[in-house]
From TrEMBL:
EC number: 2.3.1.179
A Gene Ontology term for the protein's cellular component: cytosol
Entry annotated with the keyword Transferase: yes
Reactions mediated catalytically: a fatty acyl-[ACP] + malonyl-[ACP] + H(+) = a 3-oxoacyl-[ACP] + holo-[ACP] + CO2; (9Z)-hexadecenoyl-[ACP] + malonyl-[ACP] + H(+) = 3-oxo-(11Z)-octadecenoyl-[ACP] + holo-[ACP] + CO2
Alphabetized GO MF terms: 3-oxoacyl-[acyl-carrier-protein] synthase activity
Family: Belongs to the thiolase-like superfamily. Beta-ketoacyl-ACP synthases family.
GO biological process, one term: fatty acid biosynthetic process
InterPro entries given in the database record: 3-oxoacyl-ACP_synth-2, Beta-ketoacyl_synthase, Ketoacyl_synth_C, Ketoacyl_synth_N, PKS_Beta-ketoAc_synthase_dom, Thiolase-like
Source organism of the structure: Dysosmobacter segnis
Name of the protein: 3-oxoacyl-[acyl-carrier-protein] synthase 2
Pfam families assigned to the protein according to its UniProt record, in alphabetical order: ketoacyl-synt, Ketoacyl-synt_C
Length: 413
């Protein structure tokens, strides 16, 4: 089967550091931190007081009052980001066959806030009195479904639910779907809105979240003093397009997607393999898929969660795949700015990776202070810097042992 080339022609994002992809990327370049005190609810009775919330998002202004009322927050983020990606690409379904345009959009948790609210309503009024919109607004796949409805895309519509790897799986699966000839255009990415008492409590009880109250020392990937991740929220959506289709309509191109790898640790429900071998295999698979040697890669947007096991294991994985070249490339974590957006993380980080290639800029790992000997690669500490990079990886590693890695190439006509 012919392997067709796939390019990124549109970007959309809603993040803790910006309400669009452009705003979010400028904030990354400026080293802005989106972490602060939780405002979605009163966290006084809980140990974790910080999160990376989306600020100033007005769904009624973006989507209309009636429409936004019938969507969970995670779906609102997704539809807003998808509309931005379509507008940014200058694309509408009338420019292609609707049956050749699809959606793959992840959410790890879906409408958690809706579940919590409706559970309280059921306890108070009886469970037969919960909202008739509860199920169709809370289920994880509804963001993908609503994006497809809004865009009029009638090809494959799917929702990978692979925890923190979901956004990367969505982009990678969409890339292969176009490359292998099943579609010309795909909206893909991830969305999440899980800053709720139960979600924060659940992650706290398993000791995954940091309990510091200092935003500057909360999400500190690769730092020896890291103590857990910070919950983030938002969405990232990319418009992927078959190259000749994009060229025919004169689309601008951000970057080319050239490789994708996905594996499973098959080891533990939450902990990664200590040697990072599952993640290493995903990276190696992405390189093989793209026909690229390790020495050609100049940058990795790391999963980099700010947990001890993840950051050390990911560093070990990079050393396994890249050997001595691991010390020549740069590997930073933009979660130091956005927090961990769970199912949206991989998609937003794919956007940042594409823009890194376009602009020749390496994002920083901000608030970095203390070297960990187990994380001794170039993490681009504290300040981003220019760099001429041709290939870059974006990694995601999720609960359940899910590993995903995307290989992107600087656009060269």
């Amino acid at each position: 089967m012919e392997r067709r080339r796939v390019v990124i022609t549109g970007l959309g994002a809603v993040t803790p550091i910006g309400l669009t992809a452009g705003e979010s990327w400028q904030a990354v370049k400026n080293g802005v931190c989106g972490i602060g005190p939780i405002t979605h609810y009163d966290p006084a009775a809980q140990k974790v007081k910080l999160a990376a919330e989306v600020k100033g998002f007005d769904p009624e202004a973006l989507l209309g009052r009636q429409e936004s009322k019938r969507m969970g927050r995670f779906t609102q983020f997704a539809v807003a980001a998808a509309r931005e990606a379509l507008s940014d690409a200058g694309f509408s379904v009338e420019q292609a066959e609707a049956d050749r345009c699809g959606v793959i959009l992840s959410s790890g948790i879906g409408g958690q806030a809706i579940t919590e609210a409706e559970h309280s309503r059921g306890q108070e009024k009886g469970f037969d009195r919960v909202s008739p919109f509860y199920v169709p607004t809370a289920i994880c796949n509804m963001a993908a479904g609503q994006v497809a409805i809004d865009a009029g895309f009638r090809a494959m519509c799917s929702c990978p639910v692979t925890a923190c790897a979901g956004g990367t799986n969505a982009v990678g699966d969409a890339f292969h779907y176009i490359r292998d000839g099943y579609a010309e255009v795909m909206l893909c990415g991830g969305t999440e809105a899980s800053i709720t008492p139960m979600s924060i409590g659940g992650f706290t009880s398993m000791k995954a979240l940091t309990q510091t109250e200092d935003p500057d020392r909360a999400s500190i990937p690769f730092d020896a003093e890291r103590s857990g991740f910070v919950m983030g929220e938002g969405a990232g959506v990319l418009l992927l397009e078959e190259l000749e289709h994009a060229k025919t309509r004169g689309a601008k191109i951000y970057a080319e997607v050239v490789g994708y790898g996905a594996t499973c640790d098959a080891h533990h429900i939450t902990a990664p393999l200590a040697d990072g071998s599952g993640g290493a295999k995903a990276m190696a698979m992405a390189l093989t898929d793209g026909g690229v040697s390790p020495e050609q890669v100049g940058y990795i947007n790391a999963h980099g969660t700010s947990t001890h096991l993840n950051d050390a294991g990911e560093t070990a994985a990079v050393k396994t795949v890249f050997g001595p070249h691991a010390y020549q490339l740069a590997m930073s974590s933009t979660k130091s700015m956005t927090g961990h957006m769970l199912g949206a993380a991989g998609a937003v980080e794919a956007i940042f990776t594409a823009l890194s290639l376009r602009d020749g800029f390496l994002p920083a790992t901000i608030h970095y202070q203390t070297l960990d000997p187990d994380c001794d690669l170039d993490v681009v500490p504290n300040e981003g810097r220019p760099a001429d990079i041709r290939y870059a990886l974006s990694n995601s590693l999720g609960f359940g042992g899910h590993n995903g890695s995307l290989l992107l190439k600087k656009w060269e006509d």
